[in-house]
From TrEMBL:
<keyword id="KW-0238">DNA-binding</keyword>
<protein>
    <submittedName>
        <fullName>AraC family transcriptional regulator</fullName>
    </submittedName>
</protein>
<dbReference type="Pfam" id="PF12833">
    <property type="entry name" value="HTH_18"/>
</dbReference>
<dbReference type="InterPro" id="IPR018060">
    <property type="entry name" value="HTH_AraC"/>
</dbReference>
<dbReference type="InterPro" id="IPR018062">
    <property type="entry name" value="HTH_AraC-typ_CS"/>
</dbReference>
<keyword id="KW-0804">Transcription</keyword>
<dbReference type="InterPro" id="IPR014710">
    <property type="entry name" value="RmlC-like_jellyroll"/>
</dbReference>
<feature type="domain" description="HTH araC/xylS-type">
    <location>
        <begin position="193"/>
        <end position="291"/>
    </location>
</feature>
<keyword id="KW-0805">Transcription regulation</keyword>
<dbReference type="GO" id="GO:0043565">
    <property type="term" value="F:sequence-specific DNA binding"/>
</dbReference>
<dbReference type="Pfam" id="PF07883">
    <property type="entry name" value="Cupin_2"/>
</dbReference>
<dbReference type="InterPro" id="IPR009057">
    <property type="entry name" value="Homeodomain-like_sf"/>
</dbReference>
<dbReference type="GO" id="GO:0003700">
    <property type="term" value="F:DNA-binding transcription factor activity"/>
</dbReference>
<dbReference type="InterPro" id="IPR013096">
    <property type="entry name" value="Cupin_2"/>
</dbReference>
<dbReference type="InterPro" id="IPR011051">
    <property type="entry name" value="RmlC_Cupin_sf"/>
</dbReference>
Amino acid sequence: MRQPLRKELEPVAASFLVKELVEPHFDPNWHFHPHYQLFLVKEGTGTRFIGDSISTFAPGDLVFLGPNLPHLWRSDQPYFDRQSTLRTQGIVVYFPEDFLGPAFFEKQEMSAIRQLLANARHGLTWSNGTHDRAVSVLTRLVSQPVGFGRLMGLLNLLNELAESTEYQLLASSTYVNSLRPEDTDRNIYHRMQVVHDYVLNHFPEELSLETVADLAGMTAPAFCRYFKARANKTFSEFVSEVRIGHACKLLMNTPLSITQVSFESGYRTLSNFNRQFKDITGLTPSGYVKTYRQL
């Protein structure tokens, strides 16, 4: 039986949970839960979905999520191969909204962190010095015993993240999780999981809307409406973002030509690839390579 989309964490005696994850691959299920989540990828690559945001991830990926924001760190396909010796590793922190009491963050001194928590409902990531310091703190935090020092370490980290301007919001401002927690065990709420899995496994191929709709148990027009309402984008836009994300990874990590990358990412004409690449990234493929190899 498929795991429900809504997850409940095991209760712990401490005010928050921090742990290190070491698995062959990250959890492949598109899900959400009522806790805040701070997650650092230490090892592993793949595609990250946060609400209606799609991006590739690699070691160093740092994201803070608010409650009930659907998400998925989908490891690349080689991590799922039976003979694979690859592994993923990460550090995750979970805490409920009232982990320090129902009104703690309403105090005047907590205004910056209160805004951070509000922004986290659309997902946040950080860069530059803020990112590096957060990685250092999380690495220490996971080895600290439960106690006052560990709690202060988390609060200091949240305060630094709150005061930083080196952040980016992930899900769009218009994104809303339309999934109702009380209904998430029903088959209808596994449709997005089926679609994610199929597209991520078949995006280099010619994708048929009718095939995907059939997998979701819907007619093509009904599926298009359903997908747009829940993903805040059309199915074709979703496929394009997955393909261009894969293309970005190939451009940066392989010696393939732009034409080869275009084909490997599911495009049959170079002109269509170039157009969609610029629409999504704001750069041409050659401009992307030139810009990011200089960083």
